[in-house]
């Protein structure tokens, strides 16, 4: 007996097309049953996000949000998804508060499909968007980093001494800056401290009666040389203070308790 006869039937009884169709239907049903009973696997990961503003489905002003954002989410706030506890804010980095740059370090329970993570129906990926909700507020932002290992994404800080020069200032500015003056961040950490101060007359160009241009000391303007200890963040083997790259020749802003100063880095110790 032929396996398939001239009418296309298996063993002369079963239509081969009907058989293939039946097999496809059975496989589809088995796949659906498997998906229904498939156990979802969740993992805990650590994730760092930069807070942004959100209008509708669009996010904007990442790293430049209003300062009050820092007051509505705190270290220790619990994160909820569909009413279930799904994470916690481990750290809030707002050394950059005056610049509107607020980062959060989170511990999140995420859906884990063979190492591909998702949270709130969005895949976790670098530079991807993420939305979180606490008891008090909702926040949106972009993902800076994530890892199962906390040490891989924690901010690393060191104290670094720099020399900065503030040129062509009035006497009262020099008098307002004192050794021991500090910048204190929103959480009470000392992030900058004046260690030493030197004041000298600013050199200006003057023209003599003979038309010569000479350098002379200004009788009213001062140059201020400061040694400052900064709490500096290490990013990709470079140092930053409040998002400002610490390099000789770069400008740096420091918000002391009684005056804001801005000068040029002339040396790094």
Summarize this structure as a short list of keywords or feature phrases:
269 residues; mainly beta; Elongation Factor Tu (Ef-tu), domain 3; 2 domains; nine-stranded antiparallel β-sheet; eight-stranded antiparallel β-sheet; 3 helices; 19 strands; 12% helix; elongated
Based on CA inertia axes, which overall geometry fits? elongated
Q: Round the Cα radius of gyration to an integer and report it.
A: 31 Å
Report the end-to-end length measured between terminal Cα atoms. 94 Å
Structural class: mainly beta
Strand content: over 45%
Spans of at least 5 consecutive residues whose pLDDT stays below 50 are: none
Helix content: 10-25%
Number of domains: 2
Indicate the mean pLDDT. Answer: 85
Number of distinct beta strands = 19
Total helices: the number is 3
- The helix-strand sequence is EEHEEHEEEEEEEEHEEEEEEE
Oligomer: single chain
The biggest beta sheet is recorded as: 9 strands, antiparallel
């Amino acid at each position: 007996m032929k396996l398939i006869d001239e009418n296309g039937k298996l063993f002369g009884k079963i239509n081969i097309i009907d058989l293939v169709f039946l097999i496809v239907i059975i496989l589809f049903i088995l796949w659906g049953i498997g998906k229904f009973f498939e156990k979802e696997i969740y993992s805990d990961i650590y994730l760092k996000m930069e807070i942004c503003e959100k209008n509708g489905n669009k996010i904007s002003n990442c790293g430049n949000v209003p300062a009050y954002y820092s007051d509505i989410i705190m270290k220790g706030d619990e994160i909820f998804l569909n009413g279930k506890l799904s994470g916690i804010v481990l750290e809030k980095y707002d050394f950059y508060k005056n610049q509107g740059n607020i980062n959060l370090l989170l511990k999140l329970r995420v859906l884990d499909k063979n190492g591909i993570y998702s949270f709130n129906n969005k895949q976790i990926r670098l530079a991807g968007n993420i939305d979180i909700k606490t008891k008090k507020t909702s926040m949106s932002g972009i993902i800076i980093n994530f890892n199962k290992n906390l040490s891989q994404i924690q901010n690393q800080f060191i104290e670094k001494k720099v020399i900065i020069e503030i040129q062509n200032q009035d006497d009262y500015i020099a008098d307002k800056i004192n050794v021991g003056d500090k910048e204190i961040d929103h959480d009470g950490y000392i992030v900058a401290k004046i260690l030493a101060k030197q004041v000298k007359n600013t050199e200006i160009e003057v023209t003599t009666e003979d038309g010569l241009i000479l350098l002379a000391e200004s009788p009213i303007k001062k140059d201020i040389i400061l040694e400052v200890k900064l709490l500096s963040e290490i990013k990709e083997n470079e140092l930053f203070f409040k998002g400002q790259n610490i390099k000789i020749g770069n400008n740096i802003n420091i918000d002391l308790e009684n005056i804001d100063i801005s000068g040029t880095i002339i040396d790094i110790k």
